[in-house]
Amino acid sequence: MRNIALRVEYDGADFVGSQWQTNGRSVQGALEAAWQQLTGERRRMTLAGRTDAGVHARGQVANVSTDTRHTLATIVRGLNGVLPEDIGILAAWEVPAEFHARYSAVRREYRYVIDNGRTPSPLLRRHAAYVPRRLDVAAMDAAVQQVIGTHDFAPLSDGPQEGSTVRICYDARCTRTDVWGQPLVLIDIAANAFLRHMVRNLVGTLIQVGEGRIDAAGFAAVLAGANRRARVLAPAHGLYLMAVRYPGDDNDNDAVSEFATSVGVIETRMQL
Length: 272
Fold this sequence. Notes:
This protein is an alpha+beta fold. It is built from seven helices and ten strands.
């Protein structure tokens, strides 16, 4: 029995989420159907992270136990040949039997993309959240530094959580860039794991900072659970799961270095 890991990219606009559900298309369901078509096996895929409806991924990771004799190259080529056009397999590799895409992960990296132009770009309408007021990115970046370190992020979560709500945030920053002259604001955050809606609540609150509605102290109050009214849930379609890291990963590997060096999957595609 082999254990195969897959690096998966998808446009989440037309999915009900990453996990298998009965009320519409899911990323997991599409992957499992493609796997069965390629190998003849009915297998359950395990995903590294659960993404909401509308959330995208550049570096989602899945793993599957299999008896197939297909080479890794054949698996990548074959899956991409039968998957729908809004999912792609970027890489496949052999992993130990005990590898679990979710529980073996030690770091996850997300990016949120904001269209901050005077008028919204129709080309970005499903891939960046539009905010018309020019954002103070320096103030946002200063505020988000407060989340770095070990904190109880329960005030930024929604719904019941499994186990502890304490997470370790390794990096967080806000930067400005542009695509074809359209200004974008990028919010990058990396942590060992994330709570439900944690990134979207963080981003929505940072937007309040960028618009001047609250200051860094107000942001700190939200993190402490003392000002829940200032917390805002950002739209799902601006969020991307960029990478997932595992013990022993090479820091120069594309899956992990992209977080630090890429100016965003949207910009990369639009400049081709």
